[in-house]
Write a structure and sequence with these properties.
By secondary structure, this protein is of the alpha+beta class. The protein has 6 helices and 10 strands, in the order E-E-E-H-H-E-H-E-H-E-E-H-E-H-E-E. The protein folds into 2 domains: 132 residues, Glutaredoxin (3-Layer(aba) Sandwich); 45 residues, 2-Layer Sandwich (Antioxidant, Horf6, Chain A, domain 2), CATH 3.30.1020.10.
């Protein structure tokens, strides 16, 4: 008789979502009825997952996102939450937040019980949990292209200031054809694209920017 232990099944492969790929499309039940990603074409989208309803860190995050809705609206950005919970659980939790924290949750929350969205976006990290989505943030532009993603472990909440800053930076970079340096916030100088020829590098030293060296120049917008 064999004494070998049975081998545990390998984790189900997930998609590798990459920056500048088309965002995976979905249609799912939410707290605002059935919604599809395509419903938000023409808007920026911040799709964020949380491990579970009725948990302390997730509650602080939902209060934090909800309190910044007007800022996201001003950035033409739709917030969409997600977890692997039922729509009834989402509704009960949102009502609990409103009753106990005085904060309405005005954005839809996807009920991803079949894990279709979580798997399509790579939100399941077996090292953290095989059944709960990690704290992922996906920024999707109006053409429904993936522009940025951030992952957090289950035990660390997200920073709302950084997510607002990230969306603002992406929109400013697109509109002005510039890049943002570390710790950039609106009003700070932006980075001018470096020259790509020897002649342009020589000319850059005389251009009306704050020129540190030929490859590093900034300007105020």
């Amino acid at each position: 008789m064999s004494t070998e232990q049975p081998t545990a099944p390998a984790p189900t492969p997930q998609a590798l979502v990459r920056i500048n790929d088309p965002a995976p499309q979905w249609t799912q039940v939410t707290t605002h009825g059935e919604k599809s990603l395509s419903d938000y074409a023409g808007k920026w989208v911040v799709l964020f997952s949380h491990p579970a309803d009725f948990t302390p860190v997730c509650t602080t995050e939902f209060v934090g996102f909800a309190r910044r809705v007007e800022e996201f609206d001003a950035l033409n950005t739709q917030l969409i939450g997600l977890s692997i919970d039922s729509v009834h659980s989402h509704i009960a939790w949102a009502r609990d937040i409103e009753e106990n924290w005085g904060q309405e949750i005005p954005f839809p929350i996807i009920a991803d019980l079949d894990m279709k969205v979580a798997k399509a976006y790579g939100m399941l990290h077996p090292g953290e949990s095989a059944t709960a989505a990690v704290r992922a943030v996906f920024v999707i532009d109006p053409e429904q292209t993936m522009r940025a993603m951030i992952y957090y472990p289950l035990n660390v909440g997200r920073n709302m200031d950084e997510i607002v800053r990230l969306v603002t930076a992406l929109q400013t970079a697109d509109a002005e054809s510039v890049a943002m340096p570390a710790d950039w916030t609106p009003g700070d100088p932006v980075v001018v694209p470096p020259p790509t020829t020897m002649d342009a590098a020589r000319a850059r030293m005389d251009e009306p920017y704050d020129v540190k060296t030929w490859y590093f120049s900034t300007k105020k917008l």
